[in-house]
Design the sequence.
């Protein structure tokens, strides 16, 4: 890699995700995994070692919290999850059942297990989402309506959880303004929240230039589907 060239933020974000799954990956293993997934990307092994070294403190902190481990009801005895009451737990279990018995369109992918982080977001959002359908999911007589409600709970909780992780990895303030607006207006998430390559490059450039970015979502066709930096200040104040 030429001296001074930028490593794609897409690569750094994927490295962070892979290290969250297995913090013991070597630079060579990161290189193989990332370059298999992102075509046309190639960096030397030492670059991946450098990326890992930079991400290690953040990844270690995130893993220590345990928020991205699979959810189970036994976690409710821990202080972190003490705010999840029986009614919220019911909706988390219903969403778990939905994920276990359905596939994600359009390619039939398996829904990943609900994480503890996502369960927290379901507990915060289920009343807002359910009012689109009925005061209680038990009031929905059609199975299709119950499935739609659970699908929406999964998608919205996933959106908030993914942005939270990205903010943690990139060291930017947590900002969900566009998601909040979309949920208030009754919009439907038709896609999973995803990383947009150009936006991540801009975010990386802004940080290098000393700007203060905030990660937020962007609406595409009326739904939040990607993440983009918004700058609250033009530059950091000099000490």
Sequence:
């Amino acid at each position: 890699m030429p001296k001074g060239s930028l490593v794609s933020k897409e690569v750094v974000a994927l490295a962070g995700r892979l290290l969250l799954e297995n913090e013991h990956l070597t630079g060579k293993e990161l290189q193989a995994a990332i370059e298999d997934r992102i075509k046309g990307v190639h960096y030397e092994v030492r670059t991946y070692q450098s990326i890992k070294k930079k991400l290690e403190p953040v990844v270690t902190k995130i893993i220590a919290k345990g928020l991205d481990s699979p959810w189970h009801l036994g976690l409710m005895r821990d202080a972190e999850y003490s705010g999840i009451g029986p009614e919220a737990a019911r909706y988390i279990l219903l969403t778990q059942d939905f994920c276990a018995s359905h596939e994600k369109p359009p390619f039939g992918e398996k829904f990943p297990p609900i994480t503890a982080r996502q369960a927290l977001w379901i507990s915060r959002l289920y009343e807002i989402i359910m009012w689109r359908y009925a005061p209680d999911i038990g009031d929905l007589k059609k199975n299709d309506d119950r499935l739609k409600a659970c699908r929406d709970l999964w998608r919205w909780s996933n959106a908030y959880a993914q942005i939270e992780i990205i903010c943690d990895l990139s060291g930017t303030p947590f900002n969900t303004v566009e998601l909040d607006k979309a949920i208030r207006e009754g919009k439907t998430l038709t896609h999973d929240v995803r990383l947009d390559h150009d936006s991540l490059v801009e975010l990386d450039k802004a940080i290098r230039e000393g700007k203060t970015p905030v990660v937020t979502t962007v609406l595409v066709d009326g739904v939040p589907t990607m993440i983009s930096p918004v700058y609250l200040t033009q530059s950091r104040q000099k000490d």
About this structure: The CA atoms of residues 121 and 160 lie 7 Å apart. The first strand starts at residue 103 and ends at 104.
